[in-house]
């Protein structure tokens, strides 16, 4: 199987792909391929569908606003992503973008916004976050797209918590050193907002069965740093970085 050049555009399509499919791409993706990348009929591209893995194809017909693709061969199977959820209190724009992009690159299975008492961000724009997830998947080579869950309040999250999934609660007030905690999948990480967790929330978390309180060193990290540091530590030990 010959390798595809690293410069080959790689795109998510929300259509089932296979050897006998002829996907048509339109909208923003078509605009990007035709007008930004300036692709022409015959140019190669990689497509993935979050269902069947990744496929190499070529543009069969480049129109003005849409293009059709001829599928040549499968390049990768759908990957089995490590079963790690990132539960995070949404933070302000650029920092939230950073959490989404980096967590996707690092390999989380699910992104769960959690509304805490000190969360100041009022609305999480799902469409915007979805777009960032897709872009990060396209860039980093993921074939499985992480799930974006609807925001939930912390007490509800705990109430509905699936038994047996360890929740690693990153507590700025201290806990067991993260790297010393053995928490294989299924697992989840919880990080707080800019203002941290309240005492009431801390008490609620510590009274929950699957929760383990973890510390990320002696310094107070920004919420996004904490989310990414914790995800990296977990991936290195229990994920697919081996
Ligand atoms: N304003 C708070 C800090 C909030 S930091 C204060 O001054 O205490 C935002 C979130 O990042 C925290 O709620 C926690 O989940 C995580 N975090 C930051 N530093 C951490 C650390 N050293 N250990 C564990 N979690 C940390």
CATH topology of the largest domain: Alpha/beta knot
- Give the CA-based shape: elongated
Strand content: 25-35%
Please trace the helix and strand order, writing H or E for each element.
Answer: EEHEEEEHEHEEHEEEHEH
The CATH architecture of the largest domain comes to: 3-Layer(aba) Sandwich
**Helical percent range?**
25-40%
Summarize model confidence as the mean pLDDT: 96
**Rg measurement, Å:** 20 Å
Tell me the structural class.
Answer: alpha/beta
How many strands in all? 13
Hetero ligands: S-adenosyl-L-homocysteine
End-to-end distance: 25 Å
**Total individual domains:** 2
The top level CATH class name of the largest domain: Alpha Beta
The CATH superfamily of the largest domain is known as SPOUT methyltransferase, trefoil knot domain
Main pleated sheet: 8 strands, parallel
Q: Helical segment tally?
A: 6
Low-confidence stretches: none
Summarize this structure as a short list of keywords or feature phrases.
242 residues; alpha/beta; Ribosomal Protein L25, Chain P; Alpha/beta knot; 2 domains; 8-stranded parallel sheet; 5-stranded mixed sheet; 6 helices; 13 strands; binds S-adenosyl-L-homocysteine
Structure description:
The protein is an alpha/beta fold and 242 residues long. Helices cover 29% and strands 25% of the residues. It folds into two domains: 10-76, Hypothetical PUA domain-like, domain 1 (Ribosomal Protein L25, Chain P, Beta Barrel), CATH 2.40.240.20; 84-238, SPOUT methyltransferase, trefoil knot domain (Alpha/beta knot). The strands form two sheets. Strands 6, 7, 8, 9, 10, 11, 12 and 13 form an eight-stranded parallel beta sheet that branches. It has a five-stranded mixed beta sheet with strand order 1-3-4-5-2. α3 links the parallel β7 and β8 (147-148). α2 (93-106) packs across α3 and α2 packs parallel to α6. The two termini are 25 Å apart. It binds S-adenosyl-L-homocysteine.
